[in-house]
UniProtKB/TrEMBL annotation:
Residues 247-323 form the WCX domain. Residues 16-66 form the Helix-turn-helix type domain. Residues 150-216 form the WYL domain. It comes from Methylacidimicrobium cyclopophantes. This is WYL domain-containing protein. It comes from the Bacteria.
Amino acid sequence: MRAKVFPFSRPPMRRMIAIHRLLSSKRTANCRRLAKALEVSSKTIQRDIDFMREQLDLPIEYDPGKRSFVYTKEMGQLPFLAMTEGDLVALLVAEKALEQYRETPFARALEAAFRKITSSLTERITFSWDWISEVYSFRAVGVAKADFRVFRLLNKALLESREVEFDYWKLEAEGATRRRVQPYHLANIEKQWYLFGFDLLREAVRTFALSRIAKPTLLKHRFTRPKGFSVANLLEKSFGVFEAEAAEEIRLRLDPLAARLVGERQWHPSQEIRKVGDRVELSLRIGLSAELERWILGWGAHVEVLRPECLRIAIGNASRRMARLYGEQ
């Protein structure tokens, strides 16, 4: 059931939370002490207490023996949060999006940060978190594993413009190599964290998956981040997370099922979808990459590569290898 919406203004949430915390701690909380702590008048505190007791139905009573307001039963968090409609939508998406990190090393830090955000809001619309959880949810599959200590060290390096060293396993490599990098940017792409930085040995910007970084060291040497560096510009011609050298026209023929599903998403800013006869064609202007090939193969027989010829051959060869795995010659 939705929480009741009150038609008149209320005390700022920040002050209500402070009163709630003091009452929960069982320390002395009378009007004089609260007024001094919150830098308002005693009358304001009394109005706040009346509002919390009468409108929010919180079990607050005055104990003459203790000369303090008290909760007459144990209380956890405040039962309602209230906020503007815009805040509600933004926080709803943020809180539910965090669920994909519940079982990762990031969970504790993300939850603490979210609590800090919500505790500082002033609001007008009330709602119940229980009701929100019943009607909205997010589900993420394949969230990448990452060591939060690695993330924290790289974040510190980014903020302080300091070089780092770490062991890195390339996807096809049998062992790790030691890298020295000037970190430029951390990005979460398709549920995986990546570091974009200048590799000093290779003298070029490289992309590193955090899940394949080990034994990082924060160095004392500082650097100047290039002005105008942009991951968006770096990946402008890319279909995924790795920079593409040159873009070319990719044309794919889609059957009705693929046409419906592909058309529901924006895969790349350059995409164009048009109907040709009884089929639909998708055009993209991007660079060739293993990521693009894997995406096309994921559609199976629903998508056919029309051009370029080298991509058509690559997908055909991969399809034949897959068929042999299942006994097809």
